[in-house]
Design brief:
With 304 residues, this protein is α+β, with helices and mostly antiparallel strands. The protein has a five-stranded antiparallel β-sheet with strand order 2-1-8-7-6, with helices on both faces. Strands 3-5-4 form a three-stranded antiparallel β-sheet. It has two domains: 160 residues, DD-peptidase/beta-lactamase superfamily (Beta-lactamase, 3-Layer(aba) Sandwich); 134 residues, Beta-lactamase (3-Layer(aba) Sandwich), CATH 3.40.710. It is globular, with a radius of gyration of 18 Å. Helices cover 45% and strands 11% of the residues. The chain contains 13 helices and eight strands. The structure holds glutamine. It catalyses: L-glutamine + H2O = L-glutamate + NH4(+). Belongs to the glutaminase family. This is Glutaminase.
């Protein structure tokens, strides 16, 4: 028998706080490095009924790479399958910020969820517009999905990343060298850092993820075909070189970010967000991954 969800969320949260090993926050973005690791929040937004939360579920955090899901939806909405000429749909088997593969594969990133692929997606969303117009579109989309007009970009986090963004700058320049960037590396990177610096709580993120659940009555921001495809990419590529292990342990489409957030989707059933800022060796939330494994096992939510 499946357990009662609110008490399961409380139990998962108690288990997280009983642990000693929280992992380490991202150290290459100074504004994120100083966040206390021992924090944990979880939220489940079911297809029908109210959102349920436990732990630090209303504390805002930097969603970082989780925004790649939203920018992908927007890029596909603006230019459809044209995007796939510039970026692939295969797992990379490499770290999110790997440079080597991009050179080997002549500037066409493996997928839209590694940094190189997300920089291309951002460039596509930017089109020939001013960065602030593209950012306004991204923030509007996220606010509409979450139903919260207060969601915003933390400029300090964006500036902190820009000041230390040598690897991303290298990736953007590689892309430009292979003719796979339409805007200057500086403009595209500035836009990319700012959308990565969107801040919201686990509760808001779970609500924002409902557009990928595909159930009657939920906000319909993109077509069903696109929902299915974005979920497929989240399943295969959402955790970088940890994607196989995540599918094995959790078994649902999900996207992580170095701010410690993970957005996960149980198709037709619920959107889930967890946040715990300490990361595992793949750069994915350590306690967050563990919590999702507990939740999907107890609820029998694995799609397999
Ligand atoms: N995995 C992540 O969340 C990485 C996002 C971060 N902004 C970066 O570009 O490095």
């Amino acid at each position: 028998m499946r357990p009662d969800l609110p008490s399961l969320l409380r139990r998962i949260t108690d288990d997280a706080f009983a642990e000693n090993d929280w992992g380490a926050p991202a150290d290459y973005i100074p504004e994120l490095a100083r966040i206390k690791p021992a924090q944990f929040g979880i939220a489940v937004a079911p297809a029908t009924g109210d959102v349920m939360t436990a732990g630090d579920a209303t504390t805002p955090f930097s969603v970082q790479s989780v925004t790649k899901v939203f920018t992908l939806a927007i890029a596909l909405g603006r230019s459809g399958d044209q995007l796939w000429k510039r970026v692939g749909r295969e797992p990379s088997g490499r770290a999110f910020n790997s440079i080597m593969q991009l050179e080997q594969e002549q500037g066409r990133p493996r997928n839209p969820f590694i940094n190189a692929g997300a920089i291309v997606t951002t460039d596509q969303v930017l089109d020939q517009r001013e960065p602030k117009e593209a950012l306004a579109e991204i923030v509007r989309f996220v606010r509409a999905a979450a139903g919260n007009e207060d969601i915003h970009i933390n400029d300090r986090v964006a500036a902190s990343e820009a000041a230390h963004g040598h690897r991303n700058a290298a990736l953007a320049h590689f892309l430009a060298a292979y003719g796979n960037l339409r805007n200057t590396p500086e403009r595209t990177l500035g836009t990319y850092y700012h959308h990565c610096a969107i801040e919201m709580s686990a509760r808001d993120l779970a609500l924002a993820g409902r557009f990928l659940v595909d159930a009657p009555g939920l906000p319909r921001l993109i077509s069903r075909t696109r929902i299915r495809r974005i979920n497929a990419l989240m399943m295969t590529c959402g955790h970088y070189d940890g994607s196989g292990d995540f599918a094995y342990r959790v078994g649902i489409p999900a996207k992580s970010g170095v701010g410690g957030g993970i957005l996960a989707v149980v198709p037709g059933i619920a959107s889930i967000a967890v946040w715990s800022p300490g990361l595992n060796r793949y750069g994915n939330s350590l306690r967050g991954t563990h919590a999702l494994a507990q939740l999907s096992t107890a609820m029998e939510w694995s799609v397999f």
